[in-house]
Design a protein that fits this description.
This protein has 130 residues and is α+β, with helices and mostly antiparallel strands. 36% of the residues lie in helices and 22% in strands.
Length: 130
Amino acid sequence: MSNKHLVIYPAIFRPEGENYNVTFPDVPEAITFGKGIDEAVEMAQSALGLAIYDQELPPKTTNPKDITLDNDSDFILAITLDLAEYRRENHTKTIRKNTSIPEWLNVIAEKENINFSQTLTEALKEKLGV
């Protein structure tokens, strides 16, 4: 089963002592570092999410074989990120949307004390599969 919200980008890890600087050839604005490989990978996921969370079409992914490393100590790891999950966890700001519905539907919904914002949010999540 594929996840259409899953993105995978090659990241270049450059060791500096115990730290790793991380850059993404396909997402140049995503730059980070971490102490140790685990923290560097976690920080890379976060930097990647921050850089592309609001893009309708994320940047094209380069084949890691086509990436030239600057020195022998650099290496490439594939960073995987579930964009839908990242958006849910980190970007929960709500915005106001003005919509129109048939009057008869409004009357029934108000009688049933339907929360329009909650219902629209749930319907959009279901429609988008997020």
